[in-house]
Design brief:
This protein is of the alpha+beta class and 112 residues long. It is built from 4 helices and 6 strands. Pfam families: YjbR.
Length: 112
């Protein structure tokens, strides 16, 4: 969990806050991931992203529905590579962050 927390909180202006008794990672108040337990992350991707990552990594990721809506991807933290965690958290962050903040990730990637 420490690995995932470090990645999430390393994103520009990302914070951790309670969400109905579980931890959530947010950018300017918008949730991009939640922590239902110490072994899993729920990462808020779009439907195509969820379907793609669950097809590519079926032993690590699975779909999560909220009612009838495909809400997020659940990731088994220990089974996921650091690169996969970073990619998914950054994708979810970009969906919720203002464009000016999301651009900072792209700039940082090109500096490495």
């Amino acid at each position: 969990m420490n690995r995932a927390r470090a990645i999430a909180l390393g994103l520009p202006e990302a914070t951790e806050a309670d969400h109905h008794g579980i931890a959530s990672f947010r950018v300017r108040g918008k949730i991009f991931a939640t922590v239902p337990d110490d072994r899993h992350l729920r990462i808020m991707l779009d439907e195509n992203g969820i379907r793609s990552v669950t097809a590519e990594f079926p032993s690590v990721c699975h779909e999560y529905y909220w009612g009838e809506k495909l809400a997020c991807v659940v990731v088994a933290i220990e089974a996921a590579s650091t690169g996969l965690l970073r990619e998914l958290l950054e994708d979810a962050y970009r969906r919720k962050a203002p464009v000016s903040l999301a651009r900072q990730i792209n700039i940082a990637e090109h500096e490495h």
